[in-house]
Amino acid sequence: RTGIPTDPAFWDALFAKAKQWGLIVYEQDWLYWQYNHLDKMFEDWDLARTWMLHMGDAIHRAGGVTMQLCMQYPRHVLQSLEMPAATQARASTDYVLHFEGALDA
Asked: Is the dihedral angle over the CA atoms 103, 92, 88, 7 positive or is it negative?
């Protein structure tokens, strides 16, 4: 099953603790997958926006932490315009280099 936190207190607690650990950049990866594999995203027109805003607001409140979006749809990039903590988005999917013999000892 796939789920996302809907209580902003989750994000506040997470980023308050992560800030103590020295977090400076939070990467939210696999955004397209989370959107596509959670049926509720298609049933509740505001859920994705609310989820991202809760996340972004908590990061912003943590202070000194930024956010990178990864494997996102254009809709995620557009949503990040309301999220001051979102400062970057990776434009590529994950990749693996394949060089014959590269890992041979």
From this structure: negative
For residue 55, the 8-state DSSP code is H
- How far apart CA 41 and CA 66 sit, in angstroms, is 25
**Helix boundaries (H) for the chain:** 8-21, 31-36, 40-43, 47-62, 74-79
**Which residues are bridge partners to 67 per DSSP?**
26, 86
Coil/strand/helix, residue 63 = coil
Tens of pLDDT, residue by residue over 27-52, are 999 999 889 999 999 999 999 999 99
**In whole angstroms, what separates CA 90 from the centre of its chain?**
11
- The pTM score is 0.83
